[in-house]
Design a protein that fits this description.
There is one protein chain. Helices cover 68% and strands 0% of the residues. By secondary structure, the protein is mainly alpha-helical. α1 packs across α2. The chain is rod-shaped and about 55 Å long.
């Protein structure tokens, strides 16, 4: 059955899956990076909450601001 060049149900499912993966992968990478590194004071828990509650925006904020707050290993 054709939908006269309309988006079908499988295309919608694939689109939703792709958008979900685009949102979840940077969030997981940011969470792993936060948990593997050391931060001063309560910065680590703050970044975990920012990433979890703001999802993709939180991951972007962490990669632009948070990575510079890590304690450098010597």
């Amino acid at each position: 059955m054709t939908y006269l060049h309309m988006i079908g149900p499988w295309q919608i499912i694939i689109l939703i899956t792709i958008l979900f993966l685009i949102g979840i992968i940077p969030m997981l990478i940011a969470l792993i990076d936060v948990l593997k590194n050391k931060f001063e004071g309560n910065n680590k828990i703050v970044w975990v909450f920012v990433i979890l509650f703001l999802n993709i925006i939180g991951a972007i904020l962490y990669f632009t601001i948070g990575r510079s707050q890590r304690i450098k290993n010597k």
